[in-house]
Amino acid sequence: IVNPPKDLKKPRGKKCFFVKFFGTEDHAWIKVEQLKPYHPHKEEMIKINKGKRFQQAVDAVEEFLRKTKGKDQASSHNSTEEKNRRNSSEERGKQSAGEEKRKASLSEGKVKKGTGEGKKRVSSVSSERGSKSPLKRAQDQSPRKRGRPPKDEKDLTIPESSTVKRVMTGTVAGFKWPPSVSEPAKDSDPHFHHFLLSQTEKPAVCYQAITKKLKVCEEETGSTSIQAADSTAVNGSITPTDKKIGFLGLGLMGSGIVSNLLKMGHTVTVWNRTAEKCDLFIQEGARLGRTPAEVVSTCDITFACVSDPKAAKDLVLGPSGVLQGIRPGKCYVDMSTVDADTVTELAQVIVSRGGRFLEAPVSGNQQLSNDGMLVILAAGDRGLYEDCSSCFQAMGKTSFFLGEVGNAAKMMLIVNMVQGSFMATIAEGLTLAQVTGQSQQTLLDILNQGQLASIFLDQKCQNILQGNFKPDFYLKYIQKDLRLAIALGDSVNHPTPMAAAANEVYKRAKALDQSDNDMSAVYRAYIH
């Protein structure tokens, strides 16, 4: 447990601590009841978690404890030597004094010793509690009048709690603690708010940017949202389901999702059209499925994430496809971004075989997938949505249940339509700045100080300025989503002129062989 940055406020609600996670070097707010002591649970967790990254985290914890113990021993040794020297000096003074002075000296010595013991006891109690921050200790010693502390200092004070055994500046609390035998098992809180702060070379900038995002959003619409935990933090809020999980499709998004499912302790069987992509996950503990049908037949819940409507249909309806493995009670979750007609057709054929169906497209990119910070939009079987809770928490920061099948597909296309149109506008603005003799970097600096400031804006502009178009979200896929969004508008006779204009720019970028680059490569459509 560590002190948070001064400008970082605690989330509302129950008491929580700012926790450092060994191995990933990330930080997050964690509720008090979700923290457990390290040593009593250490061996049990090592047996359960066989992954290399978990072992690296344990090694980092042990190294930290060794260094802390060494410092404590050195401090204790120095304190003992200082005390011995002081006692020896006092003894020599006593022997050289007269009888009356010796009595006075002895009397005074008792007073001093009594005072010293009193201080020692206070120090001992403070050490045993070990819960006050350095700031809080400083407050106790200051002459400030009694009353409520200033707000900024109050936020930094770590409250005492008997449920947490802690070392200031940090022993680990970030492992996936199961409930102990002596305490009742608790269900994972579906409204748990978890926020990640990834450390950077410029922490002040990172904290300032992230702080604005650390707002607990209360969902007031008719949909249901789950605020899920960040997967890189491997914390006690997620208890992996005991159901067997299957995953089909290990592309940019699927790879990160599977990685986080494995980190959280889920049992996962994987399949990919290009089998070599499965090797890495097999090494991390996943099982290999030979066909989609085999994965579905051997797993309780099977997720799929593929590129477009055609790929989604082929996966279900093709040879050795998903449909051949569906039996009553088998569950299928399609995370692909497709149109509502496609997902409705797939739902019908799955349900006709006795299966359960949920659509759950995700909003995000490769980096957010790797970090377990996707936004999941789900619709269909509500019970299946609840069954997927631990999986959604592992792969995303938030999930929404939007009702009947087709709603999530429509919402996802609208979200990506806005994102794709915005990206095209960014590229247009940067090229206009260039041709009119304005600094593109200055334009970015101005935008970053205004109302449009966002991580998306900054990252995509940096890609363009650096000429780095390594795909984080394929250009060909955002163009596909724009095309489907325009078709959605046509189906209800709703105009989408902005999306239509952006779509034409992306089509030109594709003609310039930018399909497999990042969506920010749409910039090149303006300079050719």
TrEMBL record:
<feature type="compositionally biased region" description="Basic and acidic residues">
    <location>
        <begin position="137"/>
        <end position="157"/>
    </location>
</feature>
<feature type="compositionally biased region" description="Basic and acidic residues">
    <location>
        <begin position="65"/>
        <end position="120"/>
    </location>
</feature>
<keyword id="KW-0158">Chromosome</keyword>
<dbReference type="GO" id="GO:0003677">
    <property type="term" value="F:DNA binding"/>
</dbReference>
<dbReference type="GO" id="GO:0051287">
    <property type="term" value="F:NAD binding"/>
</dbReference>
<dbReference type="GO" id="GO:0050661">
    <property type="term" value="F:NADP binding"/>
</dbReference>
<feature type="domain" description="PWWP">
    <location>
        <begin position="6"/>
        <end position="63"/>
    </location>
</feature>
<dbReference type="GO" id="GO:0140673">
    <property type="term" value="P:transcription elongation-coupled chromatin remodeling"/>
</dbReference>
<dbReference type="InterPro" id="IPR006115">
    <property type="entry name" value="6PGDH_NADP-bd"/>
</dbReference>
<feature type="domain" description="6-phosphogluconate dehydrogenase NADP-binding">
    <location>
        <begin position="244"/>
        <end position="403"/>
    </location>
</feature>
<dbReference type="Pfam" id="PF03446">
    <property type="entry name" value="NAD_binding_2"/>
</dbReference>
<dbReference type="InterPro" id="IPR051265">
    <property type="entry name" value="HIBADH-related_NP60_sf"/>
</dbReference>
<comment type="similarity">
    <text>Belongs to the HIBADH-related family. NP60 subfamily.</text>
</comment>
<dbReference type="InterPro" id="IPR008927">
    <property type="entry name" value="6-PGluconate_DH-like_C_sf"/>
</dbReference>
<dbReference type="InterPro" id="IPR035501">
    <property type="entry name" value="GLYR1_PWWP"/>
</dbReference>
<dbReference type="GO" id="GO:0031491">
    <property type="term" value="F:nucleosome binding"/>
</dbReference>
<dbReference type="Pfam" id="PF14833">
    <property type="entry name" value="NAD_binding_11"/>
</dbReference>
<dbReference type="InterPro" id="IPR000313">
    <property type="entry name" value="PWWP_dom"/>
</dbReference>
<dbReference type="InterPro" id="IPR029154">
    <property type="entry name" value="HIBADH-like_NADP-bd"/>
</dbReference>
<dbReference type="GO" id="GO:0000785">
    <property type="term" value="C:chromatin"/>
</dbReference>
<dbReference type="InterPro" id="IPR036291">
    <property type="entry name" value="NAD(P)-bd_dom_sf"/>
</dbReference>
<feature type="region of interest" description="Disordered">
    <location>
        <begin position="65"/>
        <end position="164"/>
    </location>
</feature>
<protein>
    <recommendedName>
        <fullName>Cytokine-like nuclear factor N-PAC</fullName>
    </recommendedName>
</protein>
<feature type="domain" description="3-hydroxyisobutyrate dehydrogenase-like NAD-binding">
    <location>
        <begin position="406"/>
        <end position="526"/>
    </location>
</feature>
<dbReference type="InterPro" id="IPR013328">
    <property type="entry name" value="6PGD_dom2"/>
</dbReference>
<dbReference type="Pfam" id="PF00855">
    <property type="entry name" value="PWWP"/>
</dbReference>
